[in-house]
Amino acid sequence: MKEQAGKDSVGCSEFQKCLTILHLMLDNEASEEEESYLHNHIEKCMVCFEQYQVEKQIRELLRTRMKKLEVPSDLANNIKTKISQLA
Ligand SMILES: [Zn+2]
Question: Between 49 and which of 3, 41, 42, 43 could a Cys-Cys bridge form, CB atoms 3.0 to 4.6 Å apart?
Fold first, then answer.
């Protein structure tokens, strides 16, 4: 594996794996091993770090809004669209 990172669409070859763990973490279903893998990874990987922040914010936003209003799924979709445009 001599290829440079940053040539694929999202700039991280572990992106899918990280995303899977990230979602597990947000659902509190990740193992300690998976959590520490992701934490180590996002210290070095900006792509996954930003994804982590965004997903966390979406979750918090939804959780807060859910108490008062209906879930603003448009908002979450907007954020996700922006992210995919950035990637
Ligand atoms: Zn990454």
Answer: 42
Distance CA(77)–CA(66), nearest Å, equals 16
Q: Which DSSP state fits 4?
A: P
Could you report the per-residue pLDDT of 47-58, keeping only the tens digit for each?
999 999 999 999
As a whole number of Å, the CA-based R_g of the chain is 14
Domain residue ranges in the chain = 15-86
Of 17, 15, 43, nearest in space to 30 by CA = 17
CA of 25 to the centre of ligand 1 (A): 16
- The pTM assigned to this predicted structure is 0.61
**CB-neighbour burial class of residue 83 (10 A; exposed 0-12, middle 13-18, buried 19+):** middle
**Residue pointed to by tokens 């990874």:** 41
